[in-house]
Amino acid sequence: MTECTNPTMKDRLPELLPESDDARASVEVRAHVAACASCQDDLAVLERVHALAWTEVDAVRIAGAIPAYRPASRWRRVAASGQWRAAAVVLVAVGLAVGYGRSDRGAPVDTVLARGAAESRPVLSIGDNLADLSDADLRELAAELGELEAVTSAEPEAIAVPAVGRDGAGSGGSA
Question: Is residue 171 part of a domain?
Fold first, then answer.
């Protein structure tokens, strides 16, 4: 097959597509295409591509296939927050530090709780002795855990944690 020798006419082939408004120019181009087999083939390719490019899109059907917006539950938002994760890491670290620094590691939970009550300060006890708790104690513990706030407050609270040595005595003076 021979190539078209008139590059100007080849460049004007898009004028014959349906959206073209230049009727006068398309008369010249039509006359050339009628006599040129190469331009006839090129025009056929242009018309196929044009038909594919201008296919109707059913936007209503596409929009209908998208599921309705459902806001995330409060628990999911809290669990995904970085503050919650940071608070959990700090709580575990403090619990491990307190548990590691205690001198009464092997003492039963009753002794630890009684001594904590005598000192009149909250005691965090993490250890292997939770198996010794009764069902009532476990229910009470679960209820207390349920009352904890999982979301940090807007205003940070200042806290003071006394340093405790391995012997259980404070290292910063009297409390």
Answer: no
Question: What local confidence, expressed as pLDDT, does residue 175 receive?
Answer: 42
User: Per the domain annotation, does 23 fall within a domain?
Assistant: yes
pLDDT at 81 exceeding the cut of 60? yes
Cβ–Cβ < 8 Å for 99, 109: no
Distance CA 3, CA 41 (A): 10
Place of tokens 């993490």: 126
> How many domains, the chain?
2
CA distance 155 to 66: 40
What type of residue sits at position 129? N
**pLDDT above 50 (res 121):** yes
Residue 50, in any domain of the structure? yes
pTM exceeding 0.90 = no
Residue 170 φ then ψ, to 5° = -70, 150
Residues 38/2, Cβ–Cβ less than 8 Å: yes
Give the span between the Cα atoms of 105 and 99, in whole angstroms. Answer: 7
CA dihedral 109, 113, 118, 121 (to 10 degrees): 130
154 in a structural domain: no
